[in-house]
Amino acid sequence: MKFQSLAAILISLSLGAEARPEIAGVDPENYASKKVSAEVAKGGIRKLHDQGVLRSKNEERSNKRKSNLRSLQQGFDDDYYFDGGVVGGGLTDDQLVTEEQYTIEYYQDNRFSAPEPVFANIQSPSLDASGNRWLYANVPLQPIYGINDLPIQGLAQGFCESLLDAEEGFCHFTYEFFDLMDGAIVVYASLTAEGSTNSQGMSTLNILGGTGEFSGAVGEVSLTPVGIDESIIPARVFKDGSMFLGNRNGFEAKFDIAVRYLLNAPIPVPVPVAQAVPQSLTAADSSANFDSSGSVFCLEDQGEFCDCANDCVGDLGRCDCAEGQACCGQ
């Protein structure tokens, strides 16, 4: 999870030169996405869907697959599987895994990053030399259908390096998707990708994984260098056959990812909250026999205790002592 002050980034409904995001201390060459807590990550895929940048692939087929898996789950013979009836044994319905496939589309906006190469040979700089690097810090991700018209929804950090005398290259990017909460940027999911690039046209990077609800994601991100027509609102990008490395307009970024998860993920069990000692108990009474969780030990067998919330009704003998009666309010 990453928090940054709103003062550190300028986000506008209409992006102009003055609206370039600025976050101090970003090292795009060594950038690593931060871990996202489960509470912040929850609903991240739904947010992207509602923003119109994510769609589920083959939803009907996906739902049918889920139905088949649930039918398989319901047909399990627990005794057979738990007793090792299958080869290897030990298969349970909690091991059923399903997979969702998603497509996400953004405009990776290089216009305000103005990437300049870090030349491999500073004594004899050449744009055609192998080893030149372009650094990308805080590159805005904009909805492909709302460029210059909708808020930034994410940022990209990374670098590209020229190989084989600039005919090919290699890029590494981390894409983070965020919300604004109480004047701070809160990252709820991320994807990291890297791979070789072509000199022109579309290049495909492999997704290495992600955080939040994209944890463990696999797939590809296709980056196509584009031109941009700002004479219309919202602006539109178009494929113009421009060079990939150092492209000043940016890329049309299309993510095709798959996320796997347990069909019956375990339900988190909340940690019990300690109950206050009933006011009816004196300090002397509670010092030895009262447990702060709301239990009193009246019997010698410490496994048999008086649960003040549940054992006060009925003659179980567990609450048959002064402390137990006081705990039960009698």
General description of the model:
The protein has 6 helices and 16 strands. With 330 residues, the chain is mainly β. The protein has 2 domains: 219 residues, AOC barrel-like (Beta Barrel), CATH 2.40.480; 45 residues, no CATH class. The strands form 3 sheets. It has an 8-stranded antiparallel β-barrel. The longest helix is centred in the N-terminal third of the chain and has 16 residues.
Name the descriptors.
330 residues; mainly beta; AOC barrel-like; 2 domains; eight-stranded antiparallel beta barrel; three-stranded antiparallel sheet; 6 helices; disordered N terminus
SSE blueprint:
Layout: E1 3-5, H1 38-41, H2 44-50, E2 54-56, H3 59-74, H4 78-82, E3 97-109, E4 117-118, E5 133-143, E6 154-163, E7 168-181, E8 184-198, E9 203-212, E10 218-225, E11 227-229, E12 236-238, E13 250-262, H5 283-289, E14 290-291, E15 295-296, E16 306-307, H6 322-327
Antiparallel strand pairs: 1-8, 2-3, 3-5, 3-13, 4-5, 5-6, 6-7, 7-8, 8-9, 9-10, 10-13, 11-12, 14-15, 15-16
